[in-house]
C-alpha cells in the first residue's frame, strides 16, 4: 500500500471500524438463525441426549441436525471468517496510523507483587 497521509489513515481506520461493526452484527444474526434451526430440529425430532448442551459433530446421533442446519452453519462460519479478516485489516490500519503519529505500543509495567510463604514469611 502506498504511503497515506495521517487523515487518509484516520479515514481508513473509521471505515474499517464501521465494517467490523457490521460484520460482527452479521455474525450475531446468523448465529441466532443457526441456533433457531437447531432448536426447531430438536423440537420436531427430539434431542439425542436431552441432558447435554451443544452438538457433538463426531457423534452420529447428531447427523440429522448437522445435515438440517448445514447451510445456515456454513453462512455463519463464512461470516465469522469475514469478521476475522476485517478485524485483521482494522488492526493493521490502526498500527499504521500509530506509526504515522509516532505512537508506540508499550508493555504495561509489571505490578509489584509481594509473595509470602504459607507461614507468612516474605519471599524476595
Description:
The structure is a single chain. The chain has a two-stranded antiparallel sheet. The chain contains three helices and two strands, in the order H-H-H-E-E. The protein has helices at residues 6-45, 63-68, 70-101, and strands at 115-116, 122-123. The mean pLDDT is 93. With 124 residues, the protein is mainly alpha-helical. It has one domain (6-123): Helix Hairpins (Orthogonal Bundle). Strand 1 and strand 2 (122-123) form a beta hairpin.
What are the defining features of this structure?
124 residues, mainly alpha, Helix Hairpins, two-stranded antiparallel sheet, 2 strands, 3% strand
Number of domains: 1
Largest sheet: 2 strands, antiparallel
What share of the residues does DSSP label as strand, in percent?
under 5%
- Give helix and strand order, one letter per element, not per position: HHHEE
* Form type: flat
CATH topology: the name is Helix Hairpins
Proportion of helical residues: 55-70%
Spatial strand sequence of the major β-sheet: 1-2
| C-alpha Rg (nearest Å) | 24 Å
The parts where pLDDT drops under 50 for at least 5 residues are none
**Total DSSP helices:** 3
Number of strands: 2
> How would you state the average pLDDT, rounded?
93
The secondary-structure class comes to mainly alpha
Separation of the first and last Cα atoms? 51 Å
Judging by the overall fold, what is the CATH architecture?
Orthogonal Bundle
The CATH class turns out to be: Mainly Alpha
